[in-house]
Design goal:
Chain B: Keywords: Acyltransferase, Lipid metabolism, Pyridoxal phosphate, Sphingolipid metabolism, Transferase. Chain B: It is an enzyme of class 2 (transferase). Chain B: Its EC number is 2.3.1.50. The structure holds 2 protein chains of 2 kinds. By secondary structure, chain A is an all-alpha fold. Chain A is about 60% helix and about 0% strand. Chain A has one domain. In chain A, helix 1 runs antiparallel to helix 2, helix 2 packs antiparallel against helix 4 and helix 4 packs antiparallel against helix 5. Among the domains of chain B are: about 200 residues, Alpha-Beta Complex (Aspartate Aminotransferase, domain 1); about 210 residues, Type I PLP-dependent aspartate aminotransferase-like (Major domain) (Aspartate Aminotransferase, domain 2, 3-Layer(aba) Sandwich). In chain B, the strands form 3 sheets. A 7-stranded mixed sheet of chain B has the order 4-10-9-8-7-5-6, sandwiched between helices. The chains are: A mainly alpha, B alpha/beta.
């Protein structure tokens, strides 16, 4: 299933890698690591940190939910969710390959992947750790 | 992967005996070797397999832990990709019922459209409604205080005989209310009755000046724009009545709604949303109930007019807010000035004091009290001597005392302006026809210029009616002494009989039906033959008679309906209060609704009450005899 947002995300990753690669002092390995880490950080912030909706259309039915939880009316394993879960995994595998499996960069990349993957697990649906971002009814 | 090159060991047989098993093992090993080499060659022949093999060999990098991790990740990805759609249990509508394709096909084949008139309502209610519709008087002229009506012959024995299951089932199965009504209208005779059933207590609807103004407005504006007020529907007479209402009540501004029911039902959700709190009196009218329901706010009901219960609830809300450290949210208190279900008035000073103390906003529905309470008809606020601006949202009706149509909301500038963009009934409904705005203006002008002429006779008539009706002995009068709406409820302990529930058959044992079976039964078509309908009605009756109070209320309703019918014969038109029983939050007990008009003389009111008394006595005697 093709979707504009999927293509856009892949393009954004390309652009990020390109931009990081343009900076003269960054090696290719560093550029890949930075791409992976910054992509995971921003996608975590957008999908799993921000709460609610920017515009009010349904009188606050989704006020306490992150964007990930709101996708597809809270149904799990939809094509959109599958794509956005497999994308960080694919990016991680790429970045470990291109950094020649160096241990430090591997750990950094893996930590970033872990944060994002755990947030996307179905078991974490509507779970709030340590009361962060919890909206009391 | 290294292609294993297994070589066949040379003859490893122990010297001496050639064994059949070892020969077989040898043959198998040769075969296995051959298989492996051919697969290795096949894999090697796939383009890119050399590259993949080289990559995998390179990627190993002497780090088995990392490889295991990546393999785990890979298999997790594959498993995630292959998972089927599922709704998690933690989401609000987590559990859905899965139907197999065969079941879906079955339901689709069996589906028959439901009839427009449902045949499976509660048989008791349906029978009472059928009887009522069959005998409802039909107006043969204007709905004036002395109205000409066509009286239907009274259906069924005036005996108050409790109907059995079978009789009720027959009624619902074979007689539709519409059919029964149509056959009898032609045979009815026209009589003049005293109309105590209209909310137009001042008689503005039949005032000649008013009628002429309406005709002039009709000639000038037509019947009105089909548009909402915000989209070419506002006409100068709308703005004029809004200004006049605001000046009359001495508030900043007023906004006009085209329908009285949707005025309060749309003003409440314009301000109170999901996440807010509304504290409502539990005897509020249906419009308020629908308004608070669609606001999606959290609702807390307090006992009708019980200020101690209200204070207790407000205090507990405040305590819980403090305990849970809730962020600030909007809180509203919704009450009626004159309750439509009981006719009593709200204690406004106490309410104002409570709302100020607990930081609530007060929404006051003055549908029945606007124009009828207070020294000059300005409503409940004038009655208690407080300024109308102390109420945050004052909602009133133009269709009751002002005998026009529509509703209004009056209050501060900010509150009213907000409704012009956020109130559903203002934004999405057609504007009020201009001739109705004109008649409302004229009625308001009458109220403004000669309040004494209108209100003094009204109050006197109410007093006279109450004392006269009290002589009947069977009625309790829950309504206030100054309320033009008088409810007459039966004081059950004064009756020589009881509204005993019908004999109940024990409910079927199979009450624990699986959700799937009950859902399937929901979809299955309604019965087509009369026999099946009867059986269905009886089954519904059996299931629903777990509530003896509801049964007694249904019997009481039949009793009151017979009084209403008999009163029409005796020359006074009253009505029984009607409710959407299944949707009411707390359905009030059956009652007769009387609107005491101002235009009658004291003597005429007393005569009307006397006719009502005699009708009551007749029905009472018949019921007492039948239930001895």
């Amino acid at each position: 299933m093709s979707s504009g947002s999927w293509v856009t995300t892949i393009l954004i990753i390309f652009l990020m890698r390109l931009l990081f690669g343009i900076v003269p002092t960054f090696s290719s390995e560093l550029a890949w690591t930075l791409t992976n880490v910054s992509f995971n950080l921003t996608s975590f912030f957008m999908f799993h940190w921000l709460i609610g909706t920017p515009f009010e259309f349904n009188q606050g039915a989704c006020d306490g939910l992150t964007l990930w939880e709101q996708i597809d009316n809270e149904v799990q394993f939809t094509p959109a969710k599958k794509f956005f879960t497999l994308l960080p995994i694919g990016l991680f595998l790429l970045s470990t390959h291109y950094t020649h499996y160096d241990a430090t960069t591997f750990c950094v990349n893996f930590a970033a992947l872990l944060v994002v993957l755990i947030a996307k697990l179905p078991a974490m649906h509507r779970v709030r750790l340590f009361g962060i971002n919890k909206v009391v009814e | 992967m290294n292609t294993p090159t297994s070589s066949m060991p040379a003859n490893t047989m122990p010297t001496g005996t050639p064994d059949a098993t070892t020969a077989a093992i040898e043959a198998a090993l040769v075969h296995f070797n051959h298989l492996v080499t051919t697969t290795g060659d096949a894999v090697a022949s796939i383009p890119g397999s050399q590259l993949l093999g080289k990559y995998i060999r390179n990627s190993y990098q002497n780090d088995p832990a990392r490889v295991v991790l990546e393999l785990f990740l890979f298999f997790f990805a594959v498993q995630y990709l292959l998972s089927k759609r599922a709704r998690p249990a933690s989401s609000p509508d987590g559990k859905s019922i899965e139907l197999s394709q065969r079941e879906v096909d079955e339901l689709v084949d069996e589906w028959v459209p439901e009839p427009l008139v449902p045949g499976d309502a509660d048989p008791l209610v349906l029978a009472t409604d059928a009887a009522q519709l069959a005998t409802i008087p039909v107006f043969a002229g204007p709905t004036a205080v002395k109205a000409k009506v066509k009286l239907m012959p009274v259906a069924g024995a005036l005996g108050g005989v409790p109907a059995t299951h079978a009789e009720l089932a027959t009624v619902t199965a074979t007689t539709t209310p519409a059919a029964a009504a149509m056959t009898t209208i032609a045979q009815a005779k026209v009589v003049t009755v005293t109309n105590l059933a209209t909310a137009d207590v001042f008689g503005f609807a039949n005032d000649d000046t008013n009628k002429n103004l309406a005709i002039q407005a009709l000639r000038k504006y037509g019947v009105g724009a089909c548009n909402p007020p915000g989209f070419y529907g506002t006409i100068d007479v709308h703005m004029q009545i809004e200004r006049e209402l605001a000046e009359f009540l001495q508030v900043d501004q007023a906004i006009l709604y085209a329908q009285g029911f949707s005025a309060v039902g749309s003003a409440i959700p314009a301000f109170s949303k999901r996440g807010d709190l509304i504290v409502v009196d539990d005897a509020c009218n249906f419009a308020i109930q629908k308004g608070v329901q669609i606001s999606r706010s959290k609702l807390v009901f307090f006992k009708h007019n019980d200020m101690h219960d209200l204070e207790h609830k407000l205090a507990s809300i405040e305590a819980e807010d403090k305990r849970l450290k809730r962020p600030l949210y909007r809180k509203f208190l919704v009450v009626e000035g004159l309750y439509a279900n009981h006719g009593d008035i709200a204690p406004l000073p106490t309410l104002l004091e409570l709302k100020n103390r607990y930081k609530f906003r007060l929404i006051l529905d003055e549908t029945l009290s606007f124009g009828t309470l207070g020294a000059t008809g300005r409503g409940l606020t004038e009655h208690f001597g407080v300024p109308a601006s102390s109420v945050d949202l004052l909602v009133g009706s133009l269709g009751h005392a002002l005998a026009s149509a529509g509703g209004f909301c009056a209050g501060a500038n900010a509150a009213i302006e907000h409704q012009r963009l956020s109130a559903s009934a203002y934004v999405y409904s057609a504007a009020l026809p201009p001739m109705l705005a004109v008649t409302a203006s004229h009625a308001l002008a009458q109220l403004r210029t000669r309040p004494g002429d209108l209100l003094d006779p009204l109050r006197g008539n109410i007093r006279a009616f109450r004392t006269a009706v009290a002589h009947a002995g069977v009625f309790e009068l829950p309504s206030d002494a100054i309320s033009p709406l008088q409810h007459l409820r039966v004081a059950r302990d004064t009756l020589p009989f009881t509204f005993a529930p019908l004999k109940v058959e024990p409910a079927p044992a199979a009450d624990e039906i699986s959700p799937k079976a009950s859902m399937l039964s929901l979809f299955k078509s309604s019965a087509t033959s009369a026999q099946q309908q009867q059986a269905a009605a009886a089954a519904v009756l059996r299931r629903k008679t777990a509530d003896p109070e509801a049964e007694m209320a249904a019997e009481e309703a039949r009793f009151l309906q017979e009084i209403v019918q008999e009163a029409a014969v005796q020359g006074v038109l009253v009505v029984r209060a009607q409710y959407n029983v299944e949707q009411e939050h707390k359905c009030p007990r059956p009652s007769i609704k009387v609107f005491v008009p101002a235009l009658l003389s004291r003597k005429e009111v007393e005569n009307a009450a006397k006719a009502l008394r005699s009708a009551t006595g007749k029905v009472l005697a018949a019921w007492a005899k039948a239930r001895k």
